[in-house]
Amino acid sequence: MPVARLVMRSALPGTVFEGPGVIWCRLRSEESVDAVLKVVDRAGGQPLVLLCDEPNESLVMQALALGAAGCCNTHAAPDVLRQVALVVSNGGLWVGQSLLKKLVGVTSQRLGQLPPEGKSDDWSALLSERESQVARLVAAGSSNREIADQLAITERTVKAHLTAIFEKLGLRDRLQLSLRINGLKI
Amino acid sequence: MPVARLVMRSALPGTVFEGPGVIWCRLRSEESVDAVLKVVDRAGGQPLVLLCDEPNESLVMQALALGAAGCCNTHAAPDVLRQVALVVSNGGLWVGQSLLKKLVGVTSQRLGQLPPEGKSDDWSALLSERESQVARLVAAGSSNREIADQLAITERTVKAHLTAIFEKLGLRDRLQLSLRINGLKI
DNA sequence: GAATCTATTGAACCAAAGTACAGCCGGCGG
DNA sequence: CCGCCGGCTGTACTTTGGTTCAATAGATTC
After folding, report:
1. Architecture (CATH level 2) of domain A116-181
2. How many CA atoms lie within 13 A of B168 on its CB side?
3. pLDDT-based confidence at B6, cuts 50/70/90?
4. Nucleotides on chain C within 7 angstroms of protein Cβ
5. B92 and A85 in contact (C-beta within 8 Å)?
6. Would the CB atoms of A65 and B105 count as touching at under 8 Å?
7. A-B interface: how many C-beta pairs under 8 angstroms?
8. Hey, what CATH topology would domain A2-96 get?
């Protein structure tokens, strides 16, 4: 009951409304996320939920990155909003199903890459340190020229490393290497 | 009250216990996440929470990637577990504070890299049917020759489709296309 | 000290990827 | 009917990727 009323009132442009344990904040289409979040006083670390007219993934990510506990459609059903309130007021994070999948997928691969010595991925064990650097840059989409500049070596040397990498891992080209490094292919 | 009792019983090694709206599953130190999650029957899409003796970031990420709604310490305080139950039974995701920060941080960084107004899966909407087929094959690591054979067209035509794809998605080469298709660039 | 591994580079070369500038055909909407 | 778009292809070209001959130098190991 309180949640529904909160939403009704927070639907007014620019309105910030504080409910039991949750701060709701309406974000109009033309407003930027950081600008709005900056002016909201978050006393006591209360979770904040953004209400957007047209939420999209990049917007939601931005909101989460800036400390919001969730972001959902202004015109979402009251039941949904009640659930959101319940989740975030208990320290949870409200993420849409599709975004969640993507976010977790990307990040888990990313975390797996970051520790140079950490994980089981055989490629890092098979390659020398320098070769691993080159491999990572290739997997991120860089060209030989870019890699050469970044590592301050010749493009020729980059090619030499790549030839060695392909040989060691039994791969054909940089695309297959990318799939291997990113954990998408054996 | 029910939550506390659930946890007590699910603390037995390998035990899977179903509470009101939540499935709890104990993960022992020597067990692998995917092995355990694979055998759990998730009827009705109920959220599942993993209870680990020594949770770490990579473990939690793995659990989330495999569809768990959360992962917390087996010996967590009853109050915490009650909150977790509340959050996930309402469709929320339970992420520890420190991990949350890291997760959002890493992902938001990548948002800054590729601003050109593209969500990660708008590609299928922007491309024609034939172009999508080519894009998928490229993302899987196929060469132009292989794609041509597979689609029973000329290598020249494959190149034509690729040129159109690069233009439409604002990409440079097949490697970047692969990253885009595989959701590694947002 | 010889052998081995790694990093680095050069010149030349082949192959694959990608672009530029075309053309042909079929369907579809005004 | 005509313009537009999607699919398909050709010739010729530039760029990038990758290999095959090398060679030099430091570090490590036996």
Report:
1. Orthogonal Bundle (1.10)
2. 18
3. very low
4. 5-12, 16-22
5. no
6. yes
7. 120
8. Rossmann fold (3.40.50)
